[in-house]
Amino acid sequence: MSAHPALEIAVTSPAGARAARENGADRVELCIALELGGLTPSAALVEAVAGEGLPVQVLVRCRPGDFVHDAEEITLMAAEVRSVIASGASGVVIGALTADGALDTVAVTRLAEAARASDRPVDITLHRAIDQSADPVAAAALLPSLGLTRVLTSGGAPTAAEGLAAIAAMVAAAPGVQVMAGGGVRPADIPALTAAGAAAVHLSAKARALPRRGGGWVPLGAGGASAEQDTHFVTDPDVVAEARRAVEAGR
Q1: What ranges do the domains of the chain cover?
Q2: Rounded to whole angstroms, how far apart are CA atoms 29 and 16?
Q3: % pLDDT > 70, the chain
Q4: CATH for 6-211, options being 3.40.309.10, 3.20.20.380, 3.30.70.1400, 3.40.50.720
């Protein structure tokens, strides 16, 4: 290969962005609530992470759950797109599906237009809504006409390592769009993903933070979590470094 695939790390904080930068990431995707699949971060968080120096792709997703969004939610996310770009995002990560599982091209177009309304070039990535679509390869084939930069996908499988065939088919179906493999990716998976044609790999490289509570504990959100599970994820620098080595080895 003449160039190694890009390494993107999903982070939730400036500390995570530093760990990514110091251990060889090419860019970061910023969100909050990784444990919910990721949600839109605040403008202040975008500013802080952009200040760490790596290009920042910001997830714009206004709520957890399915990717079928009504008009009010799309209007809100269009405003979030404009906000995070104004706060320093190098790109946005967007997506929406129709109730029958097709790519919602009307909603995606509106969000992409909001991104392009800024006075500088921005990347526009379709997020993993594509993996819950009825036909991920068919959805990928629509992306060149929509002007999107890249797509983050596991090939419609539980993990990208299990979706290799679909990832390869997406590469063929979406010329000019960077297919980025993500979803349960471990550094050991990277050679097979790049062999399938992925131009980038995406890892959360996450570890559970040790709780720092000094008092008692009561559940504050959805039931089922124990005191030990009720924490947040942080970026593991060793996993980032291992992923960088795997990317370099595939050059």
Answers
A1: 6-211
A2: 10
A3: 98
A4: 3.20.20.380
Number of DSSP helices (H) and strands (E) in the chain, helices first: 9, 10
Q: How many angstroms separate the CA atoms of 102 and 70, rounded?
A: 15
Q: How many CB atoms lie within 10 A of CB 203?
A: 29
Query: Which residues lie closer than 8 Å to 140 by C-beta, 6 or more apart?
Result: 130, 151, 153, 169, 170, 173, 174, 177, 179
pLDDT at site 1: 39
Q: What confidence tens digit (pLDDT) does each residue in 193-219 have?
A: 999 999 999 999 999 998 888 888 888
- The model carries a pTM of 0.95
Q: CA-CA distance, 121 to 27, in Å (whole number)?
A: 16
Please choose, from the candidates 136, 133, 232, 248, the residue with its C-alpha nearest in 3D space to the C-alpha of residue 181.
136
